[in-house]
Design brief:
This protein is mainly α. The protein has one domain (2-64). It contains two helices and two strands, in the order E-H-E-H. 8% of the residues are buried. Keywords: Aminotransferase, Pyridoxal phosphate, Transferase.
């Protein structure tokens, strides 16, 4: 079973640093999640999204200067 997470290709690429792999369009195998890894995957996605948000807001600030 697969699901699309709606993540950008940059976020998908950054998740590879956490050994989380999915298609570039953020399609992920839900069947690969289990009690042992679901929290790790969720925390990694949240962390990368927060980092991505910070970078985007910084670049928007720079663009307005």
């Amino acid at each position: 079973m697969f699901s699309f997470l709606g993540l950008s290709p940059a976020v998908v690429k950054a998740l590879q640093d956490y050994h989380i792999y999915m298609a570039e369009n953020s399609r992920i195998s839900i069947a690969g999640l289990n009690d042992s890894n679901v929290e790790y995957v969720a925390r990694a996605i949240a962390h990368v999204l927060r980092q991505s948000e910070k970078q985007e807001s910084g670049s928007r600030l720079f663009a307005t200067l």
